[in-house]
Amino acid sequence: MNTNSPDKQGFFGEYGGQQLPPELKQVMDDISAAYDEIKDSDDFKNELNDLQRHYVGRPSPIYFCRRLTEQLGGAEIYLKREDLNHTGAHKINHCLGEALLAKKMGKTKILAETGAGQHGVALAAASALVGIKCEIHMGEIDIEKQAPNVLRMKLMGANVIPVARGTKSLKDAVDNAFEEYLSDPQNFFYAIGSVVGPHPFPQMVRDFQKIVGIEAREQFQEMTNSLPDTLVACVGGGSNAMGLFTAFLNDKEVNMVGVEPSGLGLDTPDHAATISKGSPGIIHGMRCYLLQDDAGEPLPVYSIASGLDYPGIGPQHSYLKDIGRVQYESATDKECLNAFVMLSRTEGIIPALESAHAVAHAIRIAPQMAGKKILINLSGRGDKDIDFVADKLNL
Fold first, then answer.
1. Positions marked catalytic
2. CATH class for domain 12-51+91-206?
């Protein structure tokens, strides 16, 4: 099977599809048909390319971490600087595409969930840009942790809905937003925030994100006259990782590592290491690796990074794990915080806590990789996290 594309039913191997009631299947098929119609049209591509350049600020640069490399010894460490995008993360890449699609479909409101708030901020910005109402569902715990992003969403006109159910975090925000979507799926557009959910969203979000890897592959060769030896990206649902990995999937000499949150430890219940500790199951309209109980219900999950505390993972990641093309590792809260501070103090770059999981893994492996090159997708900036981290570390 082609690792880059799902089959006609939206499956990557045994993962993905549309695990939906019949009435919703037709709605998803309509979105899929609309996406297939516009994705290759010159008008859509030209409009999106123009916004990526003049609104987002693409291409994002690649940066060589000279001082971090010297401090660790071993591999050279590079960053793909998605943190420099307008709104501060990779999320704007697919939010623009989804907002443009919703407008062309005549939708009246865009709905979404958010954890760390970066998807919510990006979608609020994109909705303001195209002139569609925006409603963001966010767990109460995440609202408290990510107060600056909540204010950004509200400033750009989004209606932020606090979610008090369950664990009051990302999975519950998805449930809440999806219920609102079901109240009027003909007029509402659910802008899924990662490479998850029913077909066509895992493919569509991946397609909008793959510009990250396309740019990085060309930029890295221009800088170093070679490809990276290892790519590293954090993984919750998996959009930033698929954005980077996609352009390199056929480069067999390039290793790829997705880094999940092991929280307080894989030997505790307080983690969100879906692939490391999960098994195939069904959540939010897709089949994927899932942290689940004996009845197949999603387990509560935890991560210091609000954008990673999701019990499932994208179906393409699940497939890439099974065929061995991508290696999945994890990093603890402690390792994440250490990486957050180390990158800040060696390079003057404050990473998002999500991205710091990827940095943590690179810090772990670099000393044993002399003469090699590691490229990290720095998926977001850490401005949103500084108050939380300062409290955690008593700074």
1. 65, 90
2. alpha beta
